[in-house]
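If you are new to this repository, start here. Below is one unmodified record pulled from the training split, so you can see the exact layout before writing a loader.
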Amino acid sequence: MSLPKNLLYQNKVDAMGARPYTANIQPQGAQTYAANDVMIFNIPCNRNTVLSPHDTYLKFNLTATNGATAQDWVRLAKAGAHSIIQRLRVFHGSVLLEDLDNYANLVATLVSLQRSADSVAYKGSLTEGFDDSCAVLVNGTGAGAAVPTYNINALRGARINNAAYGAIASLAANATTTVKTFCIPLVSILGSLSSKYLPLFAMTSAPIRVEIQLVSNSQIPFVAISAIASFAVTNVEMIGSFIELSDQALSVVQQATAGAPLTMAVDRYANLVFNATLNNATTNVSSPVPFKYSSVQAIINTIRQHSSGAITFDAYGSHNYNINEYWFQFGSESIPSKHPGSSSTGGADHQTMAMYAFSALGSPAALDYNPNINLYSYDTLAVPVASAETANTCVGNLTSIAGSFVIGQELVSFPSANQDQMFSGRNCSTEDIYHNMIFNSNATTPAVRFDYYCLHHAVIICENGQANIRY
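And here is the target side for that same chain:
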């Protein structure tokens, strides 16, 4: 027999000695960054020191300079302040530990799939450049129809100009927006993807080098009614949260390895891209997905038309383009065995597609799983719509919401279980993978881009002060 913990009156034990501290790490070289520039940070790897990834973040100021036409408003794309980042790479010495291209699009997808509307609207609006509200005006039809204004749970970047919905033409031609400061956590082994402290004490042969490349042109990070000429990122710092361990604490850690190299399991994302044109007729697309990893947890993908940036469109909007059916082919195995949207389920079954996407990175039946996706952004908004929002009212604001369509496939052996203590992903190192899709007709014959992301396990191995990685 047992008692509840409420009746177990036990004292706590004293923690071993450690000193937490914060360091503001400046980028190497330049102080101002623009489109296509690379920011480089060197994180020192000192004795007795670890890095707390969940408490480490990137801080910067952002301004946008207008083109030759006055703007009524300018807002960030749906990845918020993350929208400026194209690629993130992490090195230890010459060893590449992490390489994630099309970074901001992944952030937009993960925020939609893994964060609630409240998380985005409150904390996210304060530090990461997400909108704190999505008020929209819907025009009714017919005699006496209502014209309601309401908030829709959808991901949208914050206005960086005319945030108070004031007068029109509030940003003059060639003018620069007011400086905005952002603090963003990184989707990285140096951020949200690591569940353990990073053992810098075992990596003393070289600093950790972080390279952050910005997007290639100035239109990508913003949604605006006319061209943005440029943007500037200044006062950049990586705020690192470090812990200096006592000799006693470090000795206990080292004894646990029993003289073997220190190993640390991490999650990583990899990315690849495929392009296709969708016809004004039924279109079959077969995309190779050559992710060669030994423990793949999930594959997700988005479908975008304006990834290079376009006036009045969100570069990170992902839409379903009237997709009717899809499946993944792993060698001779078709997954799912009954294709979502197949004729056996009525065709164009976007509800089942959404459940597979939710399962890929969450637990759809869990009461605390509340993705920031809704019927409008996933299903109804089949193709991109130019933003027609107005300067000082909610008119047209529904068009400022870009699509959040995503396809996902979970590949772990134990779905919805904690994977921290095991490698339970699918071994794809020798498999040929294809993603097969059938689209109903698209009258505008759009040229679209499929961004694939693979969530997989990896192991960092530290020996003689040098880190290597195995996956």
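Two things worth knowing about this chain: Helices lie at 103-114, 117-127, 247-256, 350-361, 375-380. The chain is about 10% helix and 35% strand.
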